[in-house]
Amino acid sequence: MVALASASLPLNEVEVTRTGQSVRVMRPRRAAPADALRPTRAEVNLANLRFNYRALESHLAKSEGGSHKRPRIWGVLKADAYGHGASAVARTLERAGMSGVCVALLEEAIELRSAGIRIPILVMGGYFGPRRAGIDELLEHNLTPVVYDAAEIERIATVIKYSNREPLRVHLKVDTGMGRLGVSPAELPGVLDAFARHREVQLDGLMTHLACADAPDLETTEEQLRRFAELTSQIKRRGLSPKVIHAANSAATLRMPAAWFDAVRPGIALFGATPQNSQLPELKPVMRVRSEIVALRTIPKGEAIGYGHTWRAERESRIATVPMGYADGLDRLLSNKGHGLVHGKRAPIAGTVSMDLTMLDVTDVPNAKVGDEIVWLGPQEGSLGKDVITADEIAEQTGRISWEVLTSVSRRVPRFYREP
Ligand SMILES: Cc1ncc(COP(=O)(O)O)c(C=O)c1O
């Protein structure tokens, strides 16, 4: 598929040629910096991203000289690189030397190829649609699918056979205890028969996914690794020798060298958040979400504000209104609980977070004025100090996980890329 902007089309449409047919589709629209009239934006610090990548590399290098060779990094950049913008993140990491990228969806993989990413792209979701178009796209874009059942292997083989193409390299996912995707031990022999029957589909990689790598104790993960070892031997006994064996998400990358094998698949750690019970203190947050005060008012003691009047002034108060709401990804559960940073100091959210706007009680920030920067996520330094709001902190306040906090920053918040 070739995507080209055509001069004769409206600005937000592109012409796409898909297997000979030309169709017009809407350009995937993430507001470009020039579109951003509102001062609300997410700054993505690519230097911090590279820093985290290097920190993971040096952590993995600690095993060198032992029985392991240093595992390669296949970063997980699904869901638009956890909200950071997949193309820019992938380009930065490819240049930093990353070996491969993992995404969930075929569409995500195509987006990265169209952005010029050349390293292997693993499509982990394993769903390529009910017709052959999805498989054609895999072949056309040189993508590596994850497979976990014999029927899919047969479907891929048939498309390759009848279109006279080169064999396709795939990774096989085995289920060792996650119970989500992956071939079960009972079904493995049937899948291995399918590989033996269809030389068009080559087993290049073998993977599993760990359910409890961030748990306080590692018993479950150890059991998963035992099962993985058994299934790996079974596969090798059939004469198959996958070159890239991988299992570790961020937590296992940080705390379990036994799960490293040939490659690791960290996601959240690249973006500077650490899973529970796993520490790599030097990681730096990559995303900073900021806005500005657009209105400021003084309200008398006893007056209530916002939907449902859930906040009432206990003293005469200064209330700042900021254009960031739950439709931008500021969790409504932060109502009367969360904070924004102003001049490097915390100001509490006052009242209910609404769709586009949120109020802060800035009574204790006497110099606050319209136009001042408010930080919702990330660090700020100012005349009153220096502080940081992390994804982990928001996750704790809202009962979510940091993965949700990052992926909820919505597409109407433009991403600005910083290379300080
Ligand atoms: C199969 C698979 N591998 C790796 C990851 C990366 O996990 P994390 O973000 O915890 O590093 C994910 C993310 O959910 C995943 O689904």
Characterize the structure shown.
The chain has helices at residues 46-61, 78-83, 86-95, 106-114, 133-140, 150-163, 188-197, 219-237, 250-255, 391-398, 402-407, and strands at 2-4, 13-18, 21-26, 41-45, 72-76, 100-103, 121-123, 144-147, 168-173, 201-207, 244-248, 263-264, 287-292, 295-299, 304-305, 311-312, 317-322, 339-342, 345-348, 358-361, 373-382, 385-389, 415-418. Helix 1 packs across helix 3 (86-95) and helix 6 (150-163) runs parallel beside helix 7. Mean pLDDT is 91; it is low at 1-19 and 23-29. By secondary structure, it is an alpha/beta fold. It has 3 domains: 1-30, no CATH class; 48-271, Alanine racemase (TIM Barrel), CATH 3.20.20; 287-389, Lyase, Ornithine Decarboxylase, Chain A, domain 1, CATH 2.40.37. The two termini are 35 Å apart. 27% of the residues lie in helices and 26% in strands. The strands form 5 sheets. The chain has an 8-stranded parallel β-barrel with strand order 5-6-7-8-9-10-11-12. Strands 4, 13, 18, 19, 21, 22 and 23 form a 7-stranded mixed sheet that branches.
